[in-house]
Design a protein that fits this description.
The structure is a homodimer. The first copy, chain A, has about 425 residues and is α+β, with helices and mostly antiparallel strands. Chain A folds into 2 domains: about 25-115, Fumarylacetoacetase, N-terminal domain (SH3 type barrels, Roll), CATH 2.30.30.230; about 125-410, Fumarylacetoacetate hydrolase, domain 2 (Alpha-Beta Complex). The first copy, chain A, is about 15% helix and about 30% strand. Chain A contains 8 helices and 26 strands. In chain A, strands 6, 7, 8, 13, 14, 16, 17 and 22 form an 8-stranded mixed sheet that branches. A 5-stranded antiparallel sheet of chain A has the order 4-3-2-1-5. In chain A, a hairpin with a 5-residue loop joins β23 (about 370-375) and β24. The longest helix of chain A is centred in the N-terminal third of the chain and has 15 residues, at about 80-90.
């Protein structure tokens, strides 16, 4: 619909405008886990809407709308999921539709519980922000040669832990681990003293591939269902001691948080933008033309215990990513590695080039050396117990706004 | 049973003696995927045996025996799975049992197809052989300081790709990837020239844990269901270029092969042995007393195209692992990372200290410099197309032999 006008009130600044309509898994009183679509301050119950005939023109097993995860729904393919979105959009603009006439198909967002949207089979974390990789390389390796020689030739990435990806709102237990205190050589075991967040975006794989086959970069976006906000919680002291030579492990695997609403890639079409020029030119299997980046405003806020307002500590944008998602997915399958629906690939920390556009505390505080000051005057070198980290993201252009809502997590004190 | 005597003929050197009885998932004509137990040259069909009342004294949903994976069966707990094994063992020694009297409950092994025994949620690969880590460190880093400073303080490990773990017999497509040819600085894209195997063992997690909790090392073995052979196929040239700073990725993720029969930990009790002394003493959360290693003979053979006999190229033993499985699992959960039933943790390449006890081509050929010679006179610096790699493993003591069967994979030529 070129200019859809919904019949229900949607706040002007809502992330969940009539142009968005992301998918998620919710439950509510009398409603077990099921597929929902966010609209303004409501959730459309797709399972019950299907029972009322909303999707009668489509041929698919409506049972997938009562699943615990979106995986089976996503597996129907973009043709089907796209039509479902169109039908919901049309019905939200047609006062005579079942969504308006039948009670209970719209549930107030305040009355629902959101769950993990997908069952993540495998999770991969990339490292695709030039600014972040440069900043980290300067701190941990050589300030003169911050980027390793492979970085501009391929989207560096590694496998992460899928089991500990949790939905926004889940509390995060401060991890224990082996840490070498400053000035010592031997490790001790105890709570991390350098708890960090990482501002990332992640995409959900929407189409499976077979082992031994590769996805050409020009077709890669067909395999991307949609995006979420992603907080790759990190324990920098654990990570520093353990990560050589095989990469991050327990410094990351205690938890990652995602926003509950998966915004389909098609929603983000108006916000396409060219990425940074890649020099040297990548090898042919990674060459993408046109606008493969997305202009999405991102921000991080911290809310301390007892404070009623979060402090924004960083603002940046997804449009700066050096390696785009199509390149990440094509690279991932270039060796024949098979993908499954629901696999998740995260961008890596997204940093800008300014002091206030950095995507983690490690960069914001220069590894803890220069604390940041919150609005309430409190200082933070690293995250403290009871701190809540809030990621937000939205795109806006020509009066159209679509957003991701929030990805929130509060830090609990470590277990003894 | 102290001295079980089966009524069916079991070859003297069978891996699947009456003392073993490992679990797997098989299918056969007229039988969809289901749980089986290996005995000699037969497979016991547990689903049909349950229908005939074999397990009537046990209270569990026999539907799990018709599952596509062992996960639900394993989730019943060792008390139940152990009793199932005991009942099968007893019935195999009791000529009047349904296994003897009713047709079709034993299927010839040559008539079944074996499948992935478990659905692997997350897969972790450790790096726990001192000899392997030392050899690799000498080749890739500093011969004088082969081991990094963390290696003797914690079981180094990293997350691997779960989706590409395949069952023995699955053919392995030679991967393409970015490679920097010797003497050049810029990468090219093409088939790996350094295809390798890695001889490993892996254990299957049998008990889930909650996020934010840790498993004490003394309880860790309760969470280990059983073991398989594991071939961590590796493309050394792809790995070398990509792995800094975040670890191995596409050099490994194209495939890993496992043996189809999961040998429960309880089967291996007679083969317990003390591991090497750990110096420095690990931190308290990693301290294990007693016999936490297992004396399992391992070997690798290569069979070339047209050759009717494989050449054994390495023999080693699982008893040498510096870090034991209890330590690996305790370390993995020490940060609160949650485990699920079916998660897989592999040992890392298992190498001995002799030239003919090394667990990968990288070590056997000194990174390709000194080819090995097969029985048929052919030389190999790395694996070639149509080579078949065969891993075998068995334990033997006081006339009792239990084995893992084979983990086999044949190399297919790369796709263009």
């Amino acid at each position: 619909m070129p200019n859809p006008k919904p019949w229900l009130d949607i706040p002007h600044d809502s992330d969940f405008s009539i142009h968005n309509l992301p998918f998620g898994i919710f439950s509510a009183t009398g409603k077990g886990k099921r597929v929902g679509v966010a609209i303004g301050e409501y959730v459309v119950d797709l399972a019950d809407a299907a029972s009322e005939g909303l999707f009668e023109e489509l041929q698919f097993d409506f049972g997938v709308l009562s699943s615990e995860y979106l995986n089976d729904f996503i597996s129907l393919g973009k043709q089907v999921t796209g039509k479902v979105r169109s039908i919901v959009q049309f019905a939200l603009c047609d006062q005579s539709s079942v969504l308006s006439s039948i009670e209970g198909l719209l549930v107030e967002m305040t009355a629902v519980t959101m769950h993990m949207p997908v069952k993540v089979g495998d999770y991969t974390d990339f490292y695709s922000s030039l600014e972040h990789a440069t900043n980290v390389g300067k701190m941990f390796r050589d300030p003169q040669n911050a980027l390793l020689s492979n970085w501009k030739h391929l989207p560096v990435g590694y496998h992460g832990r899928a089991s500990s990806i949790v939905v926004s709102g889940t509390e995060i237990r401060r991890p224990n681990g082996q840490i070498v205190p400053d000035g010592q050589n031997e490790p001790e075991f105890g709570p991390t003293q350098k708890l960090d967040f990482e501002l990332e975006m992640a995409f959900v794989v929407g189409k499976e591939t077979q082992a031994g086959t590769s996805v050409p970069v020009k077709e890669a976006e067909d395999h991307i269902f949609g995006l979420v906000l992603f907080n790759d919680w990190s324990a920098r002291d654990i990570q520093k001691w353990e990560y050589q030579p095989l990469g991050p492990f327990l410094g990351k695997s205690f938890a990652s948080s995602i926003s509950p609403w998966v915004v389909p890639l098609e929603v983000l079409e108006p916000f396409r933008i060219k990425g940074p020029e890649q020099d040297p030119k990548p090898l042919e299997y990674l060459q993408t033309g046109g606008e493969k980046n997305f202009d999405i405003n991102l921000e991080v806020a911290i809310q301390t215990k007892g404070d009623d307002k979060p402090s924004t500590i960083s603002k940046t944008n997804f449009n700066r990513m050096y390696w785009n998602m199509a390149q990440q997915l094509a690279h991932h399958t270039s060796n024949g590695c098979n993908l499954n629906v629901g696999d998740m690939m995260a961008s890596g920390t997204i940093s800008g080039s300014d002091r206030d556009s950095l995507g983690c505390m490690l960069e914001l505080t220069l590894n803890g050396a220069i604390p940041i000051t919150l609005n309430n005057g409190q200082k933070r070198s690293w995250l403290e117990d009871d701190d809540t980290v809030i990621l937000r993201g939205f795109a806006e252009k020509d009066g159209v706004r679509v957003g991701f809502g929030e990805c929130v997590g509060r830090v609990l004190k470590a277990l003894e």
